[in-house]
């Protein structure tokens, strides 16, 4: 048996799997020369998902299965030597593709959940090659297998009230959740930066059906199972700082989605970003376009990558930039912070310092503030207001939309321009400040952006103030 059409090693190995599966399913493996053509010929083929269609093609070609029986069907699945079907990746997008051409998709037993999750057609799942053949010949009838899942609300054990103090940090989370703004936390170790960031997802609404299908389709390319009860929960991805560029943005000889695509419609959290500068800079284009294009000799692959970026950063190599614990001069601290390039920093709508708690607050229990549910309700109302006006979140507004939906009174515009020059900010930062102010006004239910909203938005530029302060000290 010969395979043509750029098969990878795993596909070439299917020859032995298919042969053994056919024989163990009580069929006869043809003694003639067999050539299997995997089209289109210019795209590399990998994985075991071709086993089932190859086996059925051989059975049809050898007149052991009527040709008419496989019409209007699509097949995907890996075969064990015994003829059993094993689960594969990519079933969810395959189901959507089968729906688009009104075909019935036959999937492995344990992939039935994914086909049932989004499939509109009469798709089927099977445990063995023999079951598939029996169904095609009318000797048995396959259904779509669904496993039972126990729903676990992961937000039950996480609440904003778990965090003592840090009310400004919680306020920043509320604004970021309402407007989908990128957020950077600065502060010494142990101040709660990571804990605050982990609470952001619980403030966001569930994904719509369309968003959930997009996100689950990407996840299906890298994992075989998707929890059908939590599939509308927004993803929260936190890659390790040693992750390569390919792991973060996607890549490989056969392109695979990276962390930014797996965070599509959700959150990408970079904790103490020790990533290489070129890796961090690779986020700039996806943050603007909402997608990543991976180019290879065989062609280009486009993955969605519309995510909300959240970062947590120590302000110096020692974790401190003031007091006796700093142990680093301004030049060293600047070199440390310069790992984040100016263009990347510009893409953070908000940056906020998270200070150490005052002495005695932990012993006294501190101010725990509002619950997640109370804040989430305000976020929900603000998002409804901005969607009815913009038809998108405030963070996604373009320059023309900012002029249309974020008008400023003359004295407020002059106030903002003065602050901009004082901090040495770019035009991109100017637009981001206005968008954050728009979200703050929406949270209050105000149609007009006022000076107090601009002042609060300017308060979320901690990184700019820190860099300006360090630059002055380094001179």
Automatic annotation (TrEMBL):
<dbReference type="InterPro" id="IPR025158">
    <property type="entry name" value="Mg_chelat-rel_C"/>
</dbReference>
<dbReference type="InterPro" id="IPR003593">
    <property type="entry name" value="AAA+_ATPase"/>
</dbReference>
<dbReference type="GO" id="GO:0008233">
    <property type="term" value="F:peptidase activity"/>
</dbReference>
<keyword id="KW-0067">ATP-binding</keyword>
<dbReference type="InterPro" id="IPR000523">
    <property type="entry name" value="Mg_chelatse_chII-like_cat_dom"/>
</dbReference>
<dbReference type="GO" id="GO:0005524">
    <property type="term" value="F:ATP binding"/>
</dbReference>
<keyword id="KW-0645">Protease</keyword>
<dbReference type="GO" id="GO:0006508">
    <property type="term" value="P:proteolysis"/>
</dbReference>
<dbReference type="Pfam" id="PF01078">
    <property type="entry name" value="Mg_chelatase"/>
</dbReference>
<dbReference type="InterPro" id="IPR027417">
    <property type="entry name" value="P-loop_NTPase"/>
</dbReference>
<comment type="similarity">
    <text>Belongs to the Mg-chelatase subunits D/I family. ComM subfamily.</text>
</comment>
<keyword id="KW-0547">Nucleotide-binding</keyword>
<dbReference type="GO" id="GO:0003677">
    <property type="term" value="F:DNA binding"/>
</dbReference>
<dbReference type="Pfam" id="PF13335">
    <property type="entry name" value="Mg_chelatase_C"/>
</dbReference>
<dbReference type="InterPro" id="IPR014721">
    <property type="entry name" value="Ribsml_uS5_D2-typ_fold_subgr"/>
</dbReference>
<feature type="domain" description="AAA+ ATPase">
    <location>
        <begin position="179"/>
        <end position="358"/>
    </location>
</feature>
<keyword id="KW-0378">Hydrolase</keyword>
<dbReference type="InterPro" id="IPR020568">
    <property type="entry name" value="Ribosomal_Su5_D2-typ_SF"/>
</dbReference>
<protein>
    <submittedName>
        <fullName>ATP-dependent protease</fullName>
    </submittedName>
</protein>
<dbReference type="InterPro" id="IPR045006">
    <property type="entry name" value="CHLI-like"/>
</dbReference>
<dbReference type="InterPro" id="IPR001208">
    <property type="entry name" value="MCM_dom"/>
</dbReference>
<dbReference type="InterPro" id="IPR004482">
    <property type="entry name" value="Mg_chelat-rel"/>
</dbReference>
<dbReference type="Pfam" id="PF13541">
    <property type="entry name" value="ChlI"/>
</dbReference>
């Amino acid at each position: 048996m010969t395979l043509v059409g750029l098969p990878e090693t795993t596909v070439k190995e299917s020859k032995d799997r298919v042969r053994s599966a056919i024989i163990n399913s009580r069929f006869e493996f043809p003694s003639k020369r067999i050539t299997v053509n995997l089209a289109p010929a210019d795209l590399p083929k990998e994985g075991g998902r071709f086993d089932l269609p190859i086996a059925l093609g051989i059975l049809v070609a050898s007149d052991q299965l009527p040709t008419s029986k496989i019409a209007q069907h699509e097949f995907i699945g890996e075969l064990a030597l015994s003829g059993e079907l094993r689960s594969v990746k990519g079933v969810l997008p395959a189901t959507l593709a089968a729906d688009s051409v009104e075909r019935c998709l036959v999937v492995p037993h344990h992939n039935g959940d994914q086909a049932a999750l989004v499939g509109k057609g009469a798709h089927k799942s099977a445990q063995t090659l023999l079951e598939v053949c029996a169904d095609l010949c009318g000797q048995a009838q396959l259904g779509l297998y669904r496993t039972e899942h126990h729903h676990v609300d992961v937000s039950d054990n996480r609440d904003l009230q778990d965090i003592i103090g840090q009310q400004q940090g919680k306020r920043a989370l509320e604004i970021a959740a309402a407007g989908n703004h990128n957020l950077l936390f600065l502060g010494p170790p142990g101040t709660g930066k990571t804990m605050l960031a982990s609470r952001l997802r619980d403030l966001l609404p569930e994904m719509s059906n369309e968003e959930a299908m997009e996100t689950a389709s990407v996840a299906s390319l890298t994992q075989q199972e998707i929890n059908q009860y939590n599939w509308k929960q927004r993803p929260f991805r936190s890659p390790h700082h040693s992750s390569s560029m390919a792991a973060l943005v996607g890549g490989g000889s056969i392109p695979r989605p990276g962390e930014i695509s797996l965070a599509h419609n959700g959150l990408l959290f970079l904790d103490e970003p020790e990533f290489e500068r070129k890796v961090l800079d690779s986020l700039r284009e996806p943050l603007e376009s909402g997608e990543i294009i991976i180019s290879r000799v065989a062609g280009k692959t486009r993955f969605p990558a519309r995510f909300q970026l959240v970062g947590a950063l120590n302000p110096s190599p020692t974790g401190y930039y003031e007091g006796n614990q700093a142990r680093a001069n301004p030049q060293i601290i600047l070199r440390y912070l310069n790992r984040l390039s100016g263009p990347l920093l510009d893409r953070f709508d908000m940056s906020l310092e998270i200070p150490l708690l005052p002495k005695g607050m932990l012993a006294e229990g501190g101010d725990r503030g509002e619950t997640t549910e109370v804040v989430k309700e305000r976020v929900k109302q603000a998002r409804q207001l901005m969607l009815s006006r913009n038809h998108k979140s405030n963070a996604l507004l373009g320059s023309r939309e900012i002029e249309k939906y974020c008008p400023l009174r003359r004295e407020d515009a002059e106030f903002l321009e003065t602050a901009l020059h004082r901090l040495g900010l770019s035009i991109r930062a100017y637009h981001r400040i206005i968008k954050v102010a728009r979200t703050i006004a929406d949270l209050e239910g105000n149609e007009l952006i006022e000076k107090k909203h601009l002042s609060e938005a300017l308060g979320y530029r901690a990184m700019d103030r820190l860099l300006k302060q360090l630059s002055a000290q380094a001179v």
